[in-house]
Every structure is written in structure tokens, then in C-alpha cells.
Amino acid sequence: MTPGKGDKQDSVIVEDALSVLCARAAGREGIPVQIHAGLIWTAWGPTRIPLVKELSPFIYSVPETTFVLFHGGFPHPDDLAHLAATMTNVRAELNWMPYWAGERFAEVIGQWIDMIPNDRMLYGTDSAGLSCLTHDMVTREGLAQALEVRVSRGGLSKPAALQIAANLLRNNAIDVYSLSLPKYVV
Questions:
Q1: Number of Cβ within a 10 Å radius of residue 54
Q2: Most buried one in 54, 67, 107, 131, CB count within 10 A?
Q3: CA-CA distance, 12 to 9, in Å (whole number)?
Q4: How far apart are CA 79 and CA 68, in angstroms?
Q5: What pTM, to 2 d.p., does this model score?
Q6: Rounded CA gap, 36 and 7, in Å?
């Protein structure tokens, strides 16, 4: 490739190689790589960003790095659930998903609880203001509904359900980001 003479494909090859190098460096330093995976909302409306299926080859190529995939992969949270269930270096982060999934959120988080090891799910947000409060309420309500269903059916004990909630809402983020904060223990 001649400097200044490359085409779009040349730049994609260089960008992909640099992304892998940066992700490997982050992994060596113990720094998780955060990627928006699903929809994001901008001042111009919803914006398409990489789908989980499109990110899979990149993530598979850097198994030593922890990846935190934002927005639950919405509108395809099942793709993120599958990837987080099968790749030990993937964390499913559900910010904004409760808002977008709406009434379906309890069903989606229930699927995650059934599929993903509970140390690979976490809650956080990249929003601010009143939307944070709305997300918190919807997340807690949907999580409570999903856990209640599993406890009432005998699939989970109440202490196990409470520990899943503590892990998802706090403890897993403390681990992923190496925070010096106390964990909730049930």
C-alpha cells in the first residue's frame, strides 16, 4: 500500500490490525475493552453500530482480553447471550437494553440468567440524568420478575437468586474493572 494511495479496503485492513494490537495490549495490562454492540441513541436518532455477530471474529482472535459488550446486543440480545455463554472473555453488559426491550426485558434477562454464567453479566450505564433512574427502576423490576419466576418454579433458591442480583448489579463490575469497593455477599 502506497501512502495516500490506499482504497477503502486497505484502510479496513489497517484498522482491523490496529484494533487487534490495541486489544492485545489492553489484555496484557488487564484493561477490559468496551464495545457498543447494538443500538445507540444520538441526537440524530438511533444509530447502527456493530452487531455481536460482526464482532465475534475479532473477539475470538483476542482470547486473552476481556470484552464488555454494551447495550445487551439489542435488538439481538440472544446473540450476546450465546457469545457470553461460550467465550470466557466476554461480559454481557445490559445498559439501555431495559429501556429498549420494554416489557420484554424480564424475559430477556431471564434468558441471560438461564444461559450465561452469572459472573459474565453486569449492569452499568453510559447515560446521565433522569434516564439513569428510569433504567435502574426497569432493570431492577425486570430482574426481580425473572428471578421470582425461577425461584417459584424451583430452578433457583432464594439465596442463589439474591446472589445473582448482587453479582449482576454490583459485584461483577467490581471484578471486571478491578474496583476497590466492597462486594455484596448474600
A1: 11
A2: 67
A3: 5
A4: 14
A5: 0.87
A6: 26
